[in-house]
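#struct-pred
JK: can someone run the complex with adenosine-5'-triphosphate? inputs below
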Amino acid sequence: MENILSVKDLSKKYGKAQILNKVNLDIPKGSIFGLVGRNGAGKTTLMRIVTGLAEPTSGTYSIGGVSSSDKKILSVRRRMGSITESPAIYRNLSAYDNLKLQYINLGMTSYDDISELLELVDLKDTGKKKAGKFSLGMRQRLGIAVVLCGKPDILILDEPINGLDPQGIIQMREILLRINRERHTTILISSHILEELSKLATHYAFIEKGEILQTLSSRELMSKVRKSSRIKVSAADPLFRIFDREGIEYKIDSEDTIDIYSDITAKHIISLADEAGVEVLSINENNESLEGYFMNLVAKKDGIS
Ligand code: ATP
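RT: done, structure tokens with the ligand placed:
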């Protein structure tokens, strides 16, 4: 797959502090690339460098095949849209007027696409309401629409989900998926929570103390992480004999909670519970192992450094 952004042996020092250490990354065109790292891992610094807001101490990167040492990088960078700090919006203007102003700044004379953009980011019904009166999620989405005015090939978003409520997180996720699918925009997105990215990212890089610990595709990650279903029952004991008989792999968590690792439908679980005379109170897909996987990688690095 063609890479839209490649980072090679990129390092950054602030004084004596090594913030990034020989980072290598390839972001495939069309991907949603999740950069996952704890606070202070170096995500923002990396994004600031590739967007031209900071200079690396050493190493290079290329956008669309154009190297950062090439003069053409300035024009290629126009194909890049980013939000690495608070979104660049005017709080005393409506959503429509914010986008219109951006169109004017970009020298665009037709404003026909503005309503389509507002619809894309779920802000089409905000009318004359000023952006300063918007919720955090609405401001984030308006910021994304402003960046999309320039029709970027790649969107770089630093922790766009931070601080949003659950509804806002779902809305943001759906919008990013639409942008990726409908506009074929590559998205590089950072978060300190893997779980948040797991519902949209196609690729991941894990970063800790300025070093890339691992890069892998979503499919590779899912095959490494064991999925399980956590069931809560009125009593777990009577189920073990039946699970053993059926060859079902499970782990007992407590007297009423069992983790099931075999691929088994909810209907099948309920029928076996019926046979055992116990009631199934809840069945949840267990994704805790995603965070566990990330924390294990980090712990391994801590162990060797
Ligand atoms: P967060 O989510 O907390 O922003 P991050 O992974 O984005 O985390 P960075 O913001 O890149 O991490 O910061 C990485 C490290 O670099 C931190 O220890 C930070 O204090 C340090 N740092 C960042 N910018 C500067 C700067 N201009 N001068 C000195 N140190 C800096």
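RT: quick notes.
The longest strand covers residues 3-14.
The pocket of adenosine-5'-triphosphate is lined by residues 14, 19, 37, 39-45, 159, 192 (CB under 6 Å).
JK: thanks, will look after standup
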